[in-house]
Amino acid sequence: MLGLFIALGFAVRGLTSHHKPVSVTVSPPASVGLHTGLQEPPGVLGATFTLDDGTGSSYRVTLVKVIDPARGANQVDLPDGGKRFVGLVFRIKALSGDLQGEDANNDAVLVGADGQRYQAALNPIAGYGNFHDGAIQVAPGDTVTGAVAFQVPDGVAVSTIQWTALSGFGPMVEWTVNG
Description:
The strands form two sheets. This protein has a four-stranded antiparallel β-sheet, with no helix packed on it. Strands 5-4-7-8 form a four-stranded antiparallel β-sheet. The longest helix has 17 residues, at about 1-20. About 15% of the residues lie in helices and about 35% in strands.
């Protein structure tokens, strides 16, 4: 997309050097949906947000629980040295459309007190499933609960949890985590 804007800029610049000035406005199609930023004021643990992902699907997402530290689901799932697992438990209620484009492992981001953004670790944690390997599969009117695990350095507190629909291309909501 950025390449399109750069190429268009050179084309317009070339036109203006030999022709009358041209005014060009470029807007991405609605279906592309660039990250649209924070949609509402931050919530706290237990807060529910309703998201419309721009493709005709809408759902409610609730941060149910922060498990810090979390245990891996088995003896093989261990965090790297100097890190711990943090598990985020989300409840998703489908309101309309098809949520097949939603993946909790891509939608959820943990922000540490160090200002760093941590992506999902893809490790299962004890007591919770990871949806369908992150993919959210739920029919309108139904609810599903799952967890996303993160590897966070020891000593770094959890500050904020962000959820961005459509793997980072849709609207974003966030929760502030105390302590």
